[in-house]
Design brief:
9 strands, globular, about 280 residues, 7-stranded mixed β-sheet
Amino acid sequence: MTPTLVRHDRHTESSAPADDGSRARDWAEIQERMLAPLYEAVYARLEVGPATRMLALGCGSGLALLMAEGRGARVTGVDSDPERLALARARLLPAPEDRTSPAAGARLVDTVTEAAAAGPHNLITAFTPIGCAAGDGDELVRSLGTAVPSAGRGRTVVLTGWGPPERCATEAVLRVASRLAGDGRTPGGGWRGPRRDDLEDVAFRSGLRPDGSGRVACPFGYADMDSAVRGLLSTRLFDAAVRATDRWQVEKEVAEALHPHRRADGTVWMSNVFRYLVCTS
């Protein structure tokens, strides 16, 4: 599945700060689709289908949940971003008058504790790539500490992260975040970059047993430079850089870093590889 190049009308001047709602929409409309090949590869490997009861940690605006439901799975999602979660609810929960929707069994909740209580689940996914910022692995370990016991022993847990930097063209662009934010060694300090054993470290600390892994090509494709900048800023990896400088400065430097990836027709294209680790609880 290849990311679609979609052109969006500019809804804010590039130098103006975007509110949380517009950033969540940028994530849903531009950026989230870039990870669709990762979702599909995991679902195909695990044969996700009607027997699957899936809990998605960091479900974002719901694309991975929709794809799992398309295979017949029953899904529960949780995300710490209320704006993204609101978009997921709009996507997945049926209107009051539509009780025949195939998404009628979806559950979207605000906390991992609520999500765990909605179980039992036989598949837990963490599709937000770890190894991006200092402390993101610690946060996932805490979430897994609540979610995994409710699923019981012998259940499947999937962890994801960026692939090797030399195979991820976007890595050079994301380094702008850590440079503008400072040294990047503190939580919220922007892009840290993946390390070889990030996923295995989280699995070990969470009491999980690795049971296989894979790599998936997830190219980032954008219709134009404006869409590329908005999409990347919607990842939240540049938040610390915006706080340390200002949004205009961050957008300017991200656009400069993207320039080598701009094609003659104005589209922006970067090849990337993501990694997933399949574990057993």
